[in-house]
Amino acid sequence: MFDIPNDIVPFRKHRLDLMGIEGRDKPKAIEAGALALSGQLGKTVLRLRKASSLSLSDLSDRSGVAKSIISQIERNETNPTLATIWRLAQALEVSIERVLQGAEDEPFLEKSAKTDTPILVSDDGKCRLAIIGWIKTVEWLQWFDFSAEPGGVLASDPHQRGSVECLSVLDGELEVEVGGVIDVARAGDTLRYRADRPHIIRNVSGKPAHATMVCILKAAAME
Known about the structure:
The chain is of the alpha+beta class. The chain has helices spanning about 25-50, 55-65, 65-75, 80-90, 95-100, 220, and strands at about 10, 120, 125-130, 140-150, 155, 165-170, 175-180, 180-185, 190-195, 200, 210-215.
């Protein structure tokens, strides 16, 4: 057995089932996200509804969310699912980020230090994923900084149904295989593909590769 640095986490087949975060860190992530949501969500939904001159019934009709549930959300008496928040955002014609943020007049500037950024390492030790996404969106949108040494392979199990992954190459060249279909992206290219089936990212070139990876989960992409 050996010690692992706090910022390095080995993983098997890209098992980020939050897509995300597993093991002892997963409950912490979920709890942090729930606490962040519960504090301002109700007031924000109420403010946005009134700004749109909508009654509870109007918003219920538009969103398909029961009037009683919306009322409970506005009073912070329930923790809605992200799918419910997404439907409310669509009905209010705002982004889900707008619903999740605090009051409009509150400044927002948040910094994550390099030492606070979790890093996942592939089984072959040649691929690294730095989790740079926001904890509030981890259940529906996840963002990573991806790097791969020559010959590096990141083999991923399927994520939840409806997931879509976007890989934007910044430097080098990466190959993606999904369902037996293979395509190559070079610097400046973006590949988008279904992530709810096994998928593989390879660096088949002789140079290091660097990319950003965004995973959109079902709550955002399909609902």
